[in-house]
Design goal:
By secondary structure, the chain is an all-alpha fold. Helices cover 77% and strands 0% of the residues. It folds into two domains: 215 residues, Growth Hormone, Chain: A; 206 residues, MFS general substrate transporter like domains (Growth Hormone, Chain: A), CATH 1.20.1250. It is globular.
């Protein structure tokens, strides 16, 4: 554990303590806007259906536009892209608040929700890209890269626990509009600080070059800006698609669990417990994410993926048999142990299979996959829970976990990270290649 803490200190030192602070508060609005828009539109329109459509438009915008923002950051650098996106997003969120308070009809509310989702600046994926690039540029070993991904994953988990909690607090003591206006202020302030931070250039130019230096153990080196431009147009290796599907399925687990927990607590007459239970799962997931730095380097990423996927199945199955509030807390908290390790492992595998010049796009795609999977599963599982009971929603979560495990097992003989296409990064030395790469 002492070694893990030392590695975390190295990760924070890569960009300085200000970087994780502004990136955390910059990504917090993403976790606030979904629930905040739902509560605000429900309160002002009196219709949960209208609020659900606005929230769905917000999720759809983020799902579709997220990879595009990542691609723009790869091509033009993070600074101009994040600056433009965070201010557009702040304006869109503020406009949504004003439109809801003015009790405008569904069409303009949904349009503003779509714009608010599409303009999310993707600070989480871009911070992950930037931190990995800094670690590669510093010549960090694979343990440092894994720890960097664990750190960023933990920040994501904490933001998605704290964000809804802030929204609930603001709604209780003031008005849901206050939460969204706070989100807009954080977007403008911390998003700008993240964009202007001195490390912003690392998220573009150093992504490829730093990886080359970090993996130089007999491998060929980069050949200059012409090849970098070619890599930007390189096709993604086929292995990345299964990783994206796995991430969407984990998002589906989130949505199905949220629907099942809400339905079950309502059945027991304790609806106020739903948010607390979901938050407890997030806290445990964050703790498990931090603990990933202590996993021995000899346990590679493919092995970690299979173990985490098996854990998702084994720990989600008891949800089908929950019979009391205390048991629900226990099962959900234990399930949180498997979430972050799987997320972090998928991010780690993606970092190794995609062309370096498309890393930000790929990280944003994974985040969008989570959002899209969660939104679709939440809608479908909510209907199933109403028709057949909470166990039906939990069955969706278990089914998604089973497919995640099947994909992980099927990847044993496929998707070799060290073999990108001809326009992608050069292959590392044989000893560090393939599914059995030591440490990842």
């Amino acid at each position: 554990m002492t070694a893990a803490l030392a590695t975390y200190r190295k990760v924070i030192a890569l960009g300085g303590p200000l970087l994780p602070a502004v990136s955390f508060f910059g990504r917090l609005p993403t976790a606030m806007c979904q629930l905040g828009s739902l509560l605000l539109v429900t309160k002002t329109s009196g219709s949960l259906a209208t609020a659900g459509l606005v929230g769905g438009a917000l999720a759809a915008g983020q799902t579709v536009a997220g990879p595009l923002i990542g691609r723009l950051a790869d091509r033009h650098g993070q600074r101009p892209v994040v600056l433009a996106a965070c201010w557009l997003n702040a304006v869109a969120v503020s406009a949504l608040v004003l439109a809801a308070l003015a009790r405008l009809p569904l069409a303009p509310l949904a349009l503003l929700g779509l714009l608010a989702g599409a303009s999310v600046p993707q600070i989480g994926p871009l911070a992950r890209t930037r931190t990995v690039a800094l670690a590669r540029r510093a010549g960090g070993d694979e343990r440092l890269i894994t720890t960097a991904l664990s750190w960023e994953g933990t920040l994501d988990e904490v933001s998605f626990v704290l964000g809804p909690a802030l929204v609930g607090l603001a709604a209780a003591v003031a008005h849901p509009a206050a939460a969204l206006l706070l989100a807009a202020a954080l977007l403008a302030g911390c998003g700008t600080a993240f964009a202007l931070h001195r490390t912003a250039v690392a998220g573009r130019a150093d992504t490829g070059e730093g990886r080359s230096r970090g993996r130089r153990d007999g491998a060929r080196t980069r050949r200059g800006p012409v090849r970098t431009r070619r890599r930007a147009r390189a096709r993604m290796p086929r292995a990345v698609h299964a990783l994206r599907v796995s991430m969407a399925l984990q998002g589906a687990m989130f949505g199905a669990c949220q629907a099942g927990i809400t339905a079950l607590t309502e059945r027991w007459g304790r609806p106020e417990q739903a948010g607390l239970i979901y938050a407890a799962m997030g806290v445990m997931s964050a703790v498990a994410g931090l603990a990933m730095a202590a996993v021995p380097a000899r346990i590679g990423l493919p092995v970690r993926r299979r173990v985490a996927a098996a854990g998702l199945v084994a720990l989600a199955a008891p949800l089908l048999f929950v019979a009391s509030l205390g048991m629900l807390y226990l099962v959900v908290i234990v399930l949180g142990v498997a979430f972050a390790p799987h997320l972090i492992t998928i991010f780690g595998l993606t970092e190794r299979v995609v062309p370096p010049a498309r890393l930000a796009e790929s990280m944003a795609f994974l985040t969008s996959a989570i959002v899209g999977g969660q939104a679709l599963a939440l809608a479908a599982s909510g209907r199933l829970a109403e028709a057949y009971g909470p166990a039906a929603a939990f069955a969706v979560a278990v089914g998604a976990a089973v497919v995640v495990l099947v994909l992980a097992l099927a990847a044993r003989g496929a998707g070799r990270p060290a073999e990108p296409g001809p326009a992608a990064a050069p292959s590392p030395a044989p000893a560090a290649s393939g599914e059995g790469r030591s440490g990842h």
